[in-house]
Design goal:
This protein is an all-alpha fold. Helix content is 57%, strand content 0%.
Length: 182
C-alpha cells in the first residue's frame, strides 16, 4: 500500500512528525479560506486515518534513520526539519555541526558552519548573510576566495541532499511506501 506521493513527501512528513497534530481544528478554522485560497492537493494517496498516518510517519522516520548513511541522515535533518521546540532545534544544530565538520575544502570551521547554517535555514536575518562576517577577523580572506568557498560548499550540500533523497527514494519504494506514477 502506497503512503506517500514521492520521496520528498515522505521525507517531509517523517522529518516533521513532531509538528503533526492529531487534534481537529476548531469549526471556524475549517471554514476559513484566505483570499488566495486554492483547492489543496490530496494530502496523501493512502486512505489512512490521522493516527495511522502519524504512526506510519514515525516508522518511516525510524526506517530512514536506521538505513541511511549518517551523512545523508544529517543532510535531511538539517534541510527538511522545522524548528518548533528545543528538541527539534537541537537535532538541527547537531546536524549542521556534523555537516560543517565533514564538509570538504580549505575553508575554516567558522565559515563552513555559517555556510551550512545559511543553506539549511531559509529565513535568516540580513546581518547573518554578510559574507565577511563568516571570516576570521585575525586573518582576513580575500573576497573572491570567500565567494568560491561558499559556491563550492553550496554545490556539495546540494549534491549531498540530492543523493540523500535518491537513497530515501530507494528505501521507501522498496518498502512499498511511494505511490507509483502513471
Amino acid at each position: 500500500m502506497s503512503v506517500y506521493r514521492s520521496a520528498e513527501h515522505g521525507i517531509m512528513r517523517a522529518m516533521n512528525v513532531d509538528s503533526i497534530s492529531l487534534h481537529k481544528g476548531a469549526g471556524w478554522q475549517n471554514k476559513y479560506k484566505p483570499d488566495a485560497w486554492e483547492a489543496e492537493r490530496a494530502d496523501n494517496p493512502c486512505p489512512m486515518d490521522r493516527f495511522d498516518q502519524l504512526t506510519q510517519d514515525s516508522m518511516t522516520r525510524s526506517l530512514l534513520r536506521r538505513v541511511l548513511a549518517a551523512q545523508q541522515w544529517h543532510v535531511l535533518v538539517a534541510h527538511f526539519m522545522v524548528d518548533l521546540d528545543g528538541s527539534t532545534q537541537q537535532q538541527r544544530i547537531a546536524a549542521i555541526a556534523y555537516l560543517a565538520r565533514s564538509a570538504p575544502g580549505k575553508s575554516h570551521h567558522l565559515f563552513r558552519t555559517k555556510c551550512v547554517t545559511a543553506w539549511a535555514t531559509p529565513r535568516l536575518p540580513e546581518a547573518f548573510m554578510v559574507l565577511h562576517t563568516w571570516d576570521n577577523a585575525e586573518l582576513p580572506t580575500p573576497e573572491k576566495t570567500l565567494y568560491r568557498w561558499r559556491s563550492d560548499l553550496r554545490k556539495w550540500l546540494e549534491s549531498e541532499r540530492d543523493a540523500a533523497i535518491a537513497s530515501a527514494w530507494v528505501i521507501l519504494s522498496e518498502a512499498g511506501l511511494i505511490a507509483e506514477v502513471a
